């Protein structure tokens, strides 16, 4: 006779660990929607050769300014080039310049911000004054000036100077935000510990501070991809970015497009929609990423 | 307070000198100069002596520090120099176009304020309800739509609906208010949409923050009408950051005008800037950049003073 029954098996329900990406998608539906659009655009850009119905550069004087139809879904432009194909290929320009410029600007800005916060004192003071000077220019004005100074320099199909013209003006803003985060990290006991242990400046910065400011860095990075795409479009529109015959959204709106307002409104409507949709998707994603990682961050 | 003001003014001066120096050096880093645009364009064939003489006349043959020194000395006396392209004083070139751009900027600001305050408040009060979602989508879209494209779409709509063409010349408000407004309201709309989007988002987030404050709970607890809680307590305290954003963005509206004036065929300072950059008219570019940067710095200064004045918790050493 067993007086004591066997202890019931207690099952400890471990909290379900979701993959962080899945958790993000579940909690931020708007951000997820943005991400879907971004992924679709990246696919379109990478697979443009197979997705686009026509070659974006083929001129067809027989079919200029054709209305949208089953042959040309979004019509043709004043050279008879297929507008849809040019928009699909335009994603290559927009995304490559957008990502590269944003990565360049945010990384450089983050490094300057972290270094400025870490070293403090006179260096910090000097760097902040310089950033003050740069911040008092509107971004487009700086970008225009840099684009005009550098001209064109295409490497592997990407205009490197255009990337610089768009990326460099973003540096001061990122530097400012990241510096603020790094200042808080600098006061942490583990930084003192690292210093006591005799680690080099470089090691403390890269191993101890940088990992702790990745959240603002990533948030700024995604926020700036959208802005970079917008800037690229503006510069190309003004004739200082991509040049004919490269398919680029801003370029499609410039020059002769204005002359065909009434005859061919599709030449204006669709490239602009492409720009807006792209920037919208990145903003949506960036916003949700901020809510998810660091809701208090002000950019 | 006085000491704080003086301190801030003292800090503004090196920033402005930095701006002047930076613009100057950036422009000199450009390959070639204005004479290339003037004489070496299509055809060429302009004798070399003429180009040399022109460069001498413009002072481009002097060492860069001498050029900077001369320009800066002029600046100190309030002289922005002479446009290399037109030969007119830079101040004159800017002055004749400033009225138009300033009017568009002011109208865009008014639009932004009128939209942002009610929309941002509504969005915050109905957080996560459909009205909030709609306003948020509207304002995120405002950040995404390029203002120059919005301008083109507006023109397209006006053309198809009313057969209206953007006029080629600018009518002063004092000459004919109706013609003036009907011309400038559209570019103001194109620029103002983005501007209002920025302000709406700021308004929403600050109202949400303020509603968490203790004094709001106190006001509600003592039975103040909800309407009064919102208007007297929440709105008042939320306005300061919003005014900041509106002030800071104002300087950047000029940036938006750079592209939008092109679309509406307006001869303002934005168009002037693009022309000056593409022609290599360095003195004019310097003058314009200095103007925009100074505006920004002054607005920044004014905002900081306003903070100190309005918010007794902020005290400066």
Structure description:
- The complex is a heterodimer of chains A (299) and B (317).
- Chain A is mainly alpha-helical and 299 residues long.
- Chain A has one domain (28-53, 70-297): MetI-like fold, CATH 1.10.3720.
- In chain A, 64% of the residues lie in helices and 1% in strands.
- Chain A has a two-stranded antiparallel ribbon with strand order 1-2.
- In chain A, helix 4 packs parallel to helix 8 (171-186).
- The mean pLDDT of chain A is 80.
- With 317 residues, chain B is an all-alpha fold.
- Helices cover 77% and strands 0% of the residues of chain B.
- Chain B has helices at 2-28, 34-39, 48-58, 64-76, 90-125, 130-144, 147-162, 177-210, 214-221, 226-264, 269-279, 282-310.
- In chain B, helix 9 (214-221) packs across helix 10 and helix 10 packs across helix 11 (269-279).
- The interface between A and B is large, with 44 and 46 residues.
Report the portion of residues of chain B in β strands: under 5%
> Quick one: CATH superfamily of chain A?
MetI-like
Instruction: Please report the two chains with the greatest interface, counting residues with C-beta closer than 8 angstroms to the partner's C-beta.
Output: A-B, 44 and 46 residues
Count of DSSP helices of chain A?
13
Order of helices and strands of chain B: HHHHHHHHHHHH
CATH architecture of the largest domain in chain B: Orthogonal Bundle
What does the largest sheet of chain B look like? Answer: none
Mean pLDDT reading of chain B: 80
Q: Helical segment tally of chain B?
A: 12
**Which architecture of chain A does the CATH hierarchy give at level 2?**
Orthogonal Bundle
Radius of gyration of chain B: 24 Å
Number of domain units of chain B: 2
What is the oligomer described by this structure?
A: heterodimer
Given as residue ranges, the uncertain stretches of chain B (5+ residues, pLDDT < 50) are none
Number of strands of chain B: 0
SS content category of chain A: mainly alpha
Name of the CATH superfamily of the largest domain in chain B: MetI-like
- Please give the alpha-carbon distance between the first and last residues of chain B: 8 Å
């Amino acid at each position: 006779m067993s007086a004591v029954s066997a202890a019931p098996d207690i099952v400890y329900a471990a909290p379900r660990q979701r993959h962080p990406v899945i958790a993000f998608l579940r909690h931020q539906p708007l951000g997820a929607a943005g991400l879907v659009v971004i992924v679709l655009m990246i696919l379109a850009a990478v697979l443009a050769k197979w997705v686009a119905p026509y070659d974006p550069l083929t001129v067809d004087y027989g079919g200029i300014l054709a209305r949208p139809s089953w042959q040309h879904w979004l019509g043709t432009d004043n050279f008879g080039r297929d507008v849809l194909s040019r928009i699909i290929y335009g994603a290559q320009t927009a995304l490559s310049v957008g990502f590269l410029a944003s990565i360049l600007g945010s990384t450089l800005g983050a490094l300057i911000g972290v270094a400025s916060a870490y070293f403090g004192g006179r260096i910090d003071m000097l760097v902040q004054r310089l950033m003050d000077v740069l911040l008092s220019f509107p971004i487009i004005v700086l970008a225009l000036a840099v684009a005009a100074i550098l001209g064109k320099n295409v490497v592997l199909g990407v205009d490197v100077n255009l990337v610089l013209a768009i990326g460099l003006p973003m540096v001061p803003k990122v530097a400012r935000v990241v510096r603020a985060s790094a200042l808080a990290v600098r006061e942490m006991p583990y930084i003192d510990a690292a210093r006591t242990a005799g680690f080099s400046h470089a090691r403390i910065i890269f191993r101890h501070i940088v990992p702790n400011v990745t959240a603002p860095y990533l948030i700024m990075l995604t926020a700036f991809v959208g802005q970079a795409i917008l800037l690229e479009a503006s510069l190309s529109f003004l004739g200082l970015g991509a040049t004919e015959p490269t398919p680029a959204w801003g370029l499609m709106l410039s020059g002769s497009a204005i002359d065909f307002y009434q005859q061919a409104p599709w030449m204006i409507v669709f490239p602009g929609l492409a720009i807006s949709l792209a920037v919208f998707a990145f903003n949506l994603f960036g916003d949700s990423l901020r809510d998810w990682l660091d809701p208090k961050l002000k950019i | 307070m006085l000491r704080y003001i003086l301190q801030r003014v003292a800090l503004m001066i090196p920033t402005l000198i930095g701006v002047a120096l930076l613009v100057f050096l950036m422009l000199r880093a450009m390959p070639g100069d204005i004479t290339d645009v003037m004489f070496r364009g299509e055809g060429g064939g302009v004798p070399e002596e003429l180009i040399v003489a022109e460069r001498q006349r413009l002072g481009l043959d002097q060492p860069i520090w001498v050029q900077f020194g001369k320009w800066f000395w002029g600046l100190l006396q309030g002289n922005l120099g002479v446009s290399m392209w037109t030969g007119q004083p830079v101040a004159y070139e800017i002055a004749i176009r400033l009225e138009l751009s300033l009017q568009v900027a002011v109208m865009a600001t008014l639009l932004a304020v009128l939209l942002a305050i009610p929309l941002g408040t509504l969005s915050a009060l109905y957080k996560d309800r459909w009205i909030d979602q709609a306003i948020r989508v509207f304002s995120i879209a405002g950040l995404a739509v390029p203002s120059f494209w919005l301008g083109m779409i507006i023109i397209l709509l006006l053309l198809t609906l009313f057969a209206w063409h953007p006029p080629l010349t600018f009518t002063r408000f004092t000459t004919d208010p109706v013609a003036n407004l009907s011309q400038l309201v559209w570019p103001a709309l194109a620029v103002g949409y983005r501007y209002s989007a920025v302000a709406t988002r700021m308004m929403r987030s600050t109202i949400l923050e303020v509603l968490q404050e203790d004094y709001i709970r106190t006001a509600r607890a003592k039975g103040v009408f909800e309407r009064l809680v919102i208007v007297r307590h929440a709105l008042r305290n939320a306005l300061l950051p919003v005014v900041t954003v509106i002030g800071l963005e104002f300087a950047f509206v000029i940036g938006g005008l750079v592209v939008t004036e092109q679309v509406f065929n307006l001869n303002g300072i934005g168009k002037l800037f693009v022309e000056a950059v593409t022609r290599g008219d360095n003195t004019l570019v310097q003058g314009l950049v200095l103007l925009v940067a100074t505006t920004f710095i002054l607005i920044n200064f004014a905002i900081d003073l306003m903070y100190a004045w309005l918010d007794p918790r902020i005290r400066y050493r």
